[in-house]
User: What shape does this take?
Amino acid sequence: MKKKLLVVDDAVSMLLLLKKFFEINYEVVTYKSVNEAIQYLQNNMELPDLIISDLNMGDVSGEDFVRYLKSEMNTKDIPTFILTSNEQSSVRVKFLKLGVDDILIKPFNFEELSLRVDNILKRYSVFK
Assistant: This one.
């Protein structure tokens, strides 16, 4: 059975690129808003194995989304990966302190993203 990724980004083009790239090896669920993703997480019994989210979205900030994920019993242990165009080290440090597993700055290399995702999932599978 393929591992499931939840990808959240308000840029439809990025959602399509990430879905196309990852669907070879993973089941990929995409949402263009944090509110839609939260609704999916609350109503779906089969949670994703990893969440990839953009940092800056229109409806809810990436920070608020991460705080929500890490505060909820059913999502707090799901590995979280942030994509951002913000190059400030202080932003990356803040999100790492919030509990995200990795951050990658846009534009990014898809091979690097894939390796980082694979490594996170390998680490988490040891604890399951």
